[in-house]
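If your schedule permits, I should be very grateful for your opinion on a structural question. Thank you for your consideration; the sequence and its tokens are set out here:

===
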Amino acid sequence: MQSDAEPERPYALAETIAPKVRRVLARNPSPFTYTGTQTYLVGDGAEVAVIDPGPAQEEHITAILDALGEARLTAILCTHTHRDHSPAAAPLSARTGAPIIGCAPLTLEDDGPRADAAFDADYRPSRVLADGESISGEGWTLTAVATPGHTSNHLCFALEETGALFTGDHVMGWSTSVVSPPDGDMSDYLASLARLYERTQDTIYFPAHGPAITKPHQLVRGMLGHRRSRERQILRQIEAGNTTIPAMVPAMYKGVDERLWPAAGRSVLAHLIDLERRDLVLRCGDAWRLPEGIA
């Protein structure tokens, strides 16, 4: 919740935040979305692309249309299909004729801890971008960078002319990404982080939630270290006798808003599955143990 001391958030207002980039903030703040979903408009000429059109809120869709002005919307891109990212794509396409491009469709039954993260069953792209494939308009080129992990269909988009990378939920400055099985995969997530760390051409990240990241490689290095630290924490918890996820989470996430503990438990599960693949833990029903010789 926004406190009285915080400035009013610029909902339904297009702000220029970088060359060729404007941002419109959706009014869907939550413990999982921070101040809300940030929709990006790319291009300052006659052709514009929209990245992560966000929730299907009339106020938000109208703000995006108003921001276009006389420009033509030529592409609606989605990083992934959680409901805080892609539902506005269909009505925006219907009103403008712009094609929906980007990630592959993905619909799963979601028994996870956050209702807003369920998949958008109505997402229907007219074109799916493969890793390394680009689309372009007047003065801009956007290239897909496959980054599975948060979801299996997650893409980032690189703005080739400026060195900006739109990172969706893969990398955020305000919080780590939730990795929730069965679709969320920690092995893939770590590999995707490592891939971004190797991309020296990216000089700034624009995530779907939270502030721009001006030292991206430093942050990604820290995120990789954080995930390895979580692994060691989990192994210590099992060694100490906390062998179930409900026992691990309170000990591992002290000081974290308890509303986030269910989501944290999903990421702990993703870590455990990754550790199991590497033969570092064994599953025993709802409990986990260390193999002989690991302790």
